[in-house]
User: What shape does this take?
Amino acid sequence: MRKILWALLFLSTVTGCDKRETKKPDRLQQVMGLQTMSELATAEYVVTKIIKANDNKTWYKVGERKILLSCKASIVAGVDMGALSPSDIRIDGENISLTLPHAKLLYINIKPEDVRTAYQDVSLFRDKFSVKEKDMLVNQAENQIKAQVPELGVLVTAETNASIFIDGFLKNLGFKNISINFSDTKNVLQ
Amino acid sequence: MKKFLKYVLFVAIIGGAVWFASKKLNFLRPFKHMFTEAPVLIDSTPIIIAEIKPLAKLMTITFTDEVVKDTSKLGVGVPSFVPLTSGALLQPSRDRLVMIGRGRVILGTDLKSLSSDDIEINGDSVTVSIPRATILETIIHPSGFEIFVEKGNWPEQAVIDLKVKIREEIERRALAQNLLQLANERSRMILETFLINTGFRAAKVLQTTDH
Assistant: This one.
């Protein structure tokens, strides 16, 4: 009976050791090189976020480690001017009506110099957080920021600012009555 | 000897049965990741809006690139006994950090300073003067940095400095490819198309260096 138990324990240990890091293929294959675009960025939100992590979930690691990072991110939104076609513009003398596509998220930028370790507490038997581990935590923070973009109001601000800018531009071109609308197509978050 | 062979056969049969059961019935699933490190997940914390800025940046070209940079310093590890070419007996331990950075540079024209002074209308023709294209932003996501070698303890500022060097190198390579000229041409094309669509027969967009 003892031998059976030892054999089972050995086998479960062997099958349980699965520390291989299976590298998942990138969902989007990076295309190195040049691409054209035609977006008009009209709003930038500068946001701050505290990144809080506690590494104490691995049962076989003695002790825990905690970290607090502060980060600043720029969220930029705007409209795609390339999506504007002649059918979206109606002119009647000095009156003009424009239908723009809805604003979308253009990018989130977290600069390396805007990420700082505010606090770190590592117990005796653990290693400090490595550069790679900190980058992974900041990556999670970026994803959290991206998920909350609709609630922040940056897209609404981008549309408002786009209207103001294009209204001013068209007034300088000689138009008196300007109407700017946004199409009903769904926002696409990049 | 017979007893030993019986024991080995017994373990092999048990092992085969366990393997078969784990593959077909997946009964070892709770134990499968027993020794797998649990991922470190961050807590959900609030996002504070520090500043809201209105922009009018026409983004026309994006350039993606990948750069490798490294740095090293004297370490506190065990010195190497490989003699240096100068004849020294010990080679001091060196800490090394090698990083790969993948990012993109966005080039375009900042139109925020555009005013009525920059627009000249002549009947059904219009001429607009806009600033020259510049690098509007360089973006390297946190996941865009790959640590290839991390040997020793690295202070935070040294890591930041290396990442900034990677960003500057990506920008330098973008400028070396004459992309500003391409960005200028594209900005002109987009605005001229917009002006024609607003009813002008002829539209010309010029770039100035005065803005």
